[in-house]
Amino acid sequence: MAIRVYNTMSRSKEELETIEPGTVKMYVCGPTVYNYIHLGNARTFLNFDMIRRYLEYSGVDVTFVQNITDVDDKIINRANVEGVPADEIAEKYRLAFEEDMEALGVKPPDIAPRATEHIAEMVEVIAVLVEKGHAYVADGDVYFDVSSFAGYGRLSGRDLSEQQVTVQFSPEMERKRDPWDFALWKAAKPGEPSWESPWGPGRPGWHIECSTMSVQYLGGGFDIHGGGLDLVFPHHENEMAQAEAYSGDRFARYWIHSGMLNIDQEKMSKSLGNIKMLREVLEEFDPDTVRMLMLGTHYRSPLSFSEMSLTEARASIERIWNCLERIESAGDNGGGGSGAGGNELTSTLERLDASFREHMDDDFNSAAALGEIFEAVREVNTFLDGAEAPPAAALQRAKQFIMEHCGALGLELEASSRIVASSTSRAKISSAGSDRGRLLSFAAEAGIEAETGEMPDEELVQLLLEARQVARESKDFTRADMIRDGLNGLGIQVEDIKRLRPE
RNA sequence: GGCGGAGUGGCCAAGUGGUAAGGCAAAGGUCUGCAAAACCUUUAUCGCGGGUUCGAUUCCCGCCUCCGCCUCCA
Hints:
alpha/beta, Rossmann fold
C-alpha cells in the first residue's frame, strides 16, 4: 500500500515515491546546541522519530540524518554571558541533547553531522555560489543574492515584495544589497570562533550547513527534508535556494513540517519566554507518556500543551500497560486452556491491523492509528474477561499486536513499574523508586520486621501482600485494607487479580 | 498588509457528501468483602449566515474568533 505524505512544497498530500524504491533518505534539522531543549523541540523530534519508525515498520530502509548546529550566534552569546569558550557550551548541550533524546526513546540518527566538522565543504559550496554569481562578498561577509534565484519564495509560498520588512538597522544590513539577502559566511569578530576562508577568517551562516551536509550524506534530490513548521521560512527557503543555485538540481523531494506546540494558545518559544524544558517534564513523567501526548495529535496540527494534558496522556498509556499486564497474568495463571473466542479475537486484530496501517499510510495519522490500538485493548480486555483459561496462542497474538503497533509508533512500553505478585493480588512499585525508609517502617508497623533490613523492596512488598492475603482469608478486612492503603500511600498500587475462593 | 492553518461532546482529538473514531473526565450498572483494574450504558444537530446538492459537519461564498510565518525560533 502506498504511503502518502503532505508536501509543504505542493500544499497537498502526495504519494511517497522515493528515488530508490524501498529506501527513504531523510534529513531533519537538528538543534542548535546552546541550551537544553524544550518540549516544543521534543515534539518535532518525536514526530520525526514516529515517521521514521513507521517507515521502517513498513519495510522501508531509512537513512536518517540529523545535524547538530554547534556554531552560531546564540552559542557565542551564551558563551560570552557565561564567560566560557563557545565550543564548551556547544559540547555541553550537544551531550545534553543526546541524553534527552535517549531518555525519550528517540532512535539516534544514522548520521549526526556537526557544522564545525564540515566547514571546508561549506566553504567550497559558498565559493561556487560566488563564482556562479549567486553570492557576493562584502567586507569579509558573503551573502546570497536572493534576486539571482528565480524560485525564491516557492517553498514558503511568499512573494517577497508583499512581505513586511521589519528589519532593524544593523551593520550587516549596510552590507547587504537587499534586505532579504542572507549570510553564507560571517566575518569573525575578535574572540569569536573562526575558520580560514578565501574571504578571511569567519564562520558559516546558519542555513548553509544543512544544504551542504544533507546533500553530502544523502545525495542531491534526497527524499524527505523535515523540521519544525517555523523553519519553513526563512531557513528551508534559504537552504533550498542555496542548494539548487549551487547544483542546478532539485534539492529535496518532500518537505515535511511538524506543527508547533502551544502553551496557553501561544507558541512555546524562546522569545515569548514560555518555555517548558523537556528535562523538567521527564522528571515527573515517563517517556511513553510524553510520546503519548504527541501521538494523540496529528503531527501537522498545533498541539496545545497543559499540565493536565500530560496527566491525561499518562492515564491513557496506563490503559495499555494494564492490558499488557493482564495478558501476562493470564499467561502466568495457566493460559493453556482452549477458551472460546480466540479465533474471533485473532480476526478482529487482523482487521484492526489493516486500519492501523491505513491511517498511518495516510500522512502518518498517529491519532487515528492510536484509536485502533485502543480498540484492540478493549477487545483483548473483553476476551480476557470472558475466558476462564485463555489459549496461549491467543494471548501471544494479543500481546504481540499491542507491542508491535505501539512499537511502530515508538512507544517502548517498558515496564514503568516493577510488579510483585502473590497468588491473588499484585503490587506495582513505581520505577521512580519508593521511599525505602518509609517502606521499612510501614512493614514494621504491619508486624513484619524480622530480617527486613537487607531485604530488597520487592521481597518486602511480597511479604506484605502475603500478610494481606492471610488477613483477607480470615476476613480481617481492617488489617487487609490497612496494608493496601499503606502501600498505596507509598506509591505502591495494590490490586486483586482474582477473587478469594473459600476452600 | 501578504501567505498559511484552525474552530467537532465537560476537556483533548480523529474523520467523512448520506446524521461523527479514540483517549481523559463524569454518572449509573456488572464484577469485588471493599477498592483497584476490566466490561456495559449514558453525554455532540461538528463557530455563525447564505449557497450548491435528493442530502453537508464534510464542497463554494461571506462573516466572526483564534493561531502560525513574514530573516531568534523545533
